[in-house]
Specification:
The chain is α+β, with helices and mostly antiparallel strands and about 475 residues long. The protein is built from 17 helices and twelve strands. Helix content is about 45%, strand content about 15%.
Length: about 475
């Protein structure tokens, strides 16, 4: 069975990475008079050629010795050096570096671009504080790269851009079309990609070579066996924790902003990789598999009643606040729900056939609304029978992800889901979920176990090392100036 793509909300991610952090003055010496109006030619001029860091352990050494270096030579910039002007003014200080209003503006534009959304100043204003918090993390990583003169060759940047250009876009739009629509220059986009590669290189180099012992593999295998006997979930977890720069009120406000964006149609993945601070959880807040009983108390209570495709509200935690999106779930001993077979019914209604053909628009909408409000399969079948609406029994499998998505939405809501079957709305399908059958859970292969052990060790190392980097950094945010960014 084919379902028109317009029937389900689809969020297109053009370049879904992290928020860009460095669209302007990278070093204090780059700024003739910081805060004065600067042209893009000056901002993105060719930088002096740096030596390439062939040994990635150099980056690791720099990160681990950052406390010593900071205590000896990092005094931080003087605020008197910066003259605030309309076109470029300082929003935050990160050691000797600054984040300007132009940095924040570009970061917001990339969030909208990644979400496939049109830029909106009001929404951008809501996310400004959370954006700057995430940008500070990335600016610290870029500073670590600068300390070891880590240089990303132009060829590597261009190769990544060519890969992006090959990604199909809605309506056949090109990358140039999309950048133009978001008022993002090619120079800014090129620096955005360079920063993505730089940050990726530094975070990977933090751990150096990760070795996995036989005991670690056996311990992880035992954990996986125990996990299969528990209820488990695949989730994206957005964390908004208190720290030395974020009090409880600000953490809660950031969580509220993120939730508004999700409810407004922004992809949870885009938000996880942009305005949710990443290093608090050891990397980007990506999808992860968790046992339900291993979650914190409040998060566990929230997730327990959730179904795949559902986003929680704001959850209070010991460290601050969290928002959780459930991608998939599995019962004890069973495979993931989305990998199962799902029985559902579809009632098709056409504007050219009874019963809709004989009704005006108001009456037709009332009929469809009455079907959608049904709360059981028996009642759904009864109503369809009364109106002589034919019903088709369907089975959704992993080979039909759009139909599985409809089944999950109906399962979660307990009600039928209306879907346009044609672009002009001439035919509508109303789908009602009945039941699911999932196979037995399968233990991961040895190769998968090794990969998971490495990922766990990597995340712990990143989290611990970045905590040291952040603890000695000189950071300040001018919230009064930040309020002016999207005026």
């Amino acid at each position: 069975m084919k379902i028109n793509k317009y029937g389900i909300a689809v969020f297109v991610t053009v370049v879904c990475a992290c928020v860009s952090t460095s669209y302007g003055n990278r070093k204090k010496t780059d700024v003739k008079t910081v805060g004065t109006a600067v042209s893009e030619d000056y901002l993105y001029r060719q930088r002096p050629k740096q030596r390439e860091c062939t040994d990635k352990e150099d980056a690791l050494t720099s990160l681990r010795n950052v406390k010593k270096k900071a205590s000896k030579g990092s005094k931080g910039g003087s605020k008197s050096d910066v003259a605030t002007q309309e076109s470029a003014f300082v929003v935050a200080w990160v050691n000797n570096d600054v984040i300007t209003n132009r940095d924040v503006e570009y970061a917001a534009k990339f969030v909208f671009l990644s979400a496939g959304k049109e830029f909106d100043k009001q929404t951008a204003r809501l996310m400004a504080v959370a954006l700057v918090t995430a940008m500070i993390e990335e600016r610290l990583l870029i500073q670590c790269a600068q300390r070891v003169s880590l240089n990303i060759p132009d060829e590597e940047v261009e190769a990544r851009i060519e890969e992006i250009k090959k990604i199909p876009q809605p309506g056949g739009a090109t990358l140039d079309d999309i950048l133009h629509a978001h008022k993002i220059s090619k120079a800014a986009f090129r620096e955005y990609i360079r920063d993505r590669i730089t940050i990726q290189t530094v975070t990977q180099s933090i751990t150096g070579d990760i070795n996995v012992s036989k005991n670690e593999i056996e311990e992880k295998m035992a954990q996986e066996k125990r996990a299969l006997q528990a209820r488990r979930h695949i989730i994206t977890e957005l964390l908004f924790n208190r720290d030395r720069l974020t009090d409880d009120e600000t953490a809660k406000k950031n969580a509220e902003i993120a939730l508004k964006l999700v409810m407004g149609g922004f992809s949870i993945k885009v938000i996880a990789e942009t305005i949710s601070p990443k290093m608090q959880s050891g990397g980007s807040s990506a999808e992860k598999q968790v046992r339900e009983d291993a979650l914190g108390k409040n998060i566990r209570i929230a997730v327990k009643g959730m179904t795949p495709g559902e986003c929680s509200g704001i959850i209070k935690t010991n460290a601050g606040y969290a928002i959780v999106f459930v991608h998939d779930s599995a019962e004890s001993g069973k495979d993931w729900l989305r990998q199962g077979r799902h029985k559902l019914y579809c009632a098709r209604l056409s504007s050219k056939q009874p019963p809709l053909a004989g009704l005006d628009q108001a009456a037709g909408n009332k009929l469809i609304g009455d079907l959608v409000e049904t709360d059981s399969v028996a009642a759904f079948k009864t109503k369809c029978g009364l109106h002589l609406i034919p019903i088709e029994e369907l089975t959704a499998t992993p080979d039909e992800p759009e139909l599985v998505e409809i089944a999950m939405r109906s399962r979660y809501s307990g009600n039928p889901i209306p879907v346009m079957m044609q672009e002009d709305g001439g035919e509508i399908g109303v789908f009602m979920y009945e039941s699911s059958v999932c196979g037995a859970a399968q233990l991961p292969s040895r190769e998968e176990i090794v990969e998971r052990v490495m990922r766990d060790k990597y995340q712990r190392e990143v989290r611990n090392t970045f905590s040291k980097v952040e603890s000695v950094a000189r950071i300040s945010i001018d919230t009064n100036v930040l309020k002016k960014v999207f005026e």
